[in-house]
Every structure is written in structure tokens, then in C-alpha cells.
Amino acid sequence: MKLFQPITLKDTTIRNRIVMAPMCQYQADDDGFVQPWHLTHYTSRSIGGVGLIIVEATGIERRGRLSGNCLGIYHDEHIEGLERIATWGRMNGAVMGIQLSHGGRKGHGDSLIGPSAISADPQRYPVPQELTDEGIDQLLMLWKEAAGRAREAGFDMIQLHGAHGYLLHSFLSPIANQRQDQYGGSPENRRRLLMRVVQSVKEEWPDDRLLSVRLSAVDYVSGGLTLEDTSATVIALKEAGVDIIDISSGGIVPALIDAFPGYQVTLAQAVKAASSLPTIAVGRLDSLDLAESVVASGHADFVALGRALLRDPHWVLRSTEQLADVPWPESYNRARRHS
């Protein structure tokens, strides 16, 4: 099955096409430090055979975390715990990524920031403060510093969170971004912050390690991002040196979404066709047959699992126990049933 075949990008070989999607665990302490929960959570999925593990949204500053118990990467002291996650996962054969994030107008607390003074949802979030040029420059430095800490922690990949209504997505979407300066208006201007973040991160991130961006391809509301907008952004990201694109959708404002199994695959397929970038598809792909069809058809290069891996850390092992050419951890082979 192609799903369980390795793939090499740059100098990194990923043992299969299964990605553990970044999922907030809400288990950090009040200042974003790694806890034993995180070590158990991520290590168990690496033992379970996942090819690429992306650590949950990790805030580049305290107010950028998505909750008061989300991980942070804004202190040098955060490096030690994050390094243990990266090291333990890699020891068990997984490629280890970390998602660098800023919640923006959907962040934690009252001092929210965004491209414009427009609430993400008046029932849940206050009106954010519109970012100034000086504020943007300060954020670029925070992203750069976070990338340096991710490098020191030993991660193989950084993923920038540009989806689900958080800061980078809010600049991309005309729903949230109504600026009249160099960061607003045209699609090129609205993607300017994201492109500058990529440039800042690459100042600290080695060229031989992987760089990914997660995007919401569409906003599901009139006047929001379209697939054509996102395809153009992905082409620009490829030219800027991004290696992997992760395609999700929605989150800029509350919207009705028909989330059937595989509902986002056509979005990933379209982006891959437009850019030829290695692409991650996500969205209720926990059926083995469906996951295999996505990769075998070439619609995407990877399949990201979320809830399926929360339910079953050994989803990959269970799915491969009768495939003799897929290696298992030596200690678990006694439980394997070959055909």
C-alpha cells in the first residue's frame, strides 16, 4: 500500500505517509511548559508507527497561545521540554515537527490583536486591537526567535499555522482584513505578513530541515477566501522555499460545514495540482481504505489523522499487522498477525 511507503524530502526520510495532525492538548502549565502528558502523548504515537508527528499549536508569545494551557515557545526555558518531545519521538522512528502559532483575534485573554478591529465572533471574543507596523515588526522578531528555539530543540520540521482564523489566516482573509495599507486590499498585500514570517523564520531555520505551512483553503462564507486565492498563495510559498503545504479549511468566522469523510480532499488536490508542492490532506480520513485512496490517487502526498490517533495511538500498527514489508517495533512483533 502506498500509504505505508516512505518518502524523502530534502534530507529527511519519512517512513510512511501518515501524519499526526497538530491537536491542542490543553495540558501545559500557565506559562506554556511541557508536562508529562505531552511526553506520553507524542511518544506513544511515535511507537505506534506515525511517520510525521506535528506538535500542537505552540505560541510564539504568551498572548498568542490559543488557551491558558497551550504550549509556548517564547522563553529559552521552554526548549528543554520541547527537546524531550522531539528526541523521544525521533528515537522511535518518527519525523518530528512543531506548529508555531499566534492566535491573533482568537487568542487567549483580553489583549487580542488582528489585522483590523473586527471580532472573530462577538459571542466569544472581544474586538482585537488593529496591529501597527511597529507591532508587526515585533511579531516578526518573535517568529524568528521561536524558529531558533525550535532548531535548538531538535525538531525536523516547522509548520506555520496559517489556518482556522488565527493571526496569519486573519491577514489572508478579506473577511477579517479590511486594512488599506501594504498589508490589506489586494491578495498580494493580504499575504504579505505570511511571506514576511516565512522569511523571518528562514533566518533561523536551517535550509536542510523542512518548512511547512497550514492553510484554510476556503472560508465557507461569501466574500471570504476562495480556492483560487489559496492556490496563488501556495505558489508564492513554494517560491519562498516552503516544502510542504497542509490544507484545511474554515475558521475565520462561524460557518456551517458539511464535514463528511474526506470533505477537504478536493481542496488539497486542487492546491497540489496548482503548485506541485507535497501536500497533506486532512478531514475525517480515519478509514484505511479512504486514506489509501487519497495517497494512491495522487490527490495528496500525506494523510493527516486527528481524532483517529486520539482514539488509537497504534492506528498504523493495527493497519499494517498483516503487511510483512512494514517494520514494527521489535518489542511488539510477538503481537503481530501476518497473513
**Largest sheet descriptor:** 8 strands, parallel, barrel
Strand content: 15-25%
Low confidence ranges? none
Quickly give the structural class.
alpha/beta
Tell me the radius of gyration: 19 Å
Name given to the CATH architecture:
Alpha-Beta Barrel
The total domain count is: 1
Which CATH first-tier class would you pick? Alpha Beta
In the CATH hierarchy, the third-tier topology is known as TIM Barrel
Describe the structure.
- The chain is of the alpha/beta class and 339 residues long.
- 33% of the residues lie in helices and 16% in strands.
- The protein has 11 helices and 12 strands.
- The protein has helices at 36-47, 79-91, 133-153, 167-172, 187-190, 192-202, 227-239, 265-275, 288-296, 307-311, 315-320; strands spanning 7-9, 12-14, 18-20, 52-59, 95-101, 113-114, 129-130, 157-162, 210-216, 244-248, 279-282, 302-305.
- The chain has an 8-stranded parallel barrel with strand order 3-4-5-8-9-10-11-12, surrounded by 6 helices. A two-stranded antiparallel ribbon has the order 1-2. Strands 6-7 form a two-stranded parallel sheet.
- Helix 1 runs parallel beside helix 2, helix 3 runs parallel beside helix 6 and helix 7 packs across helix 8.
- The chain is globular and about 60 Å long.
- The two termini are 15 Å apart.
- 49% of the residues are buried.
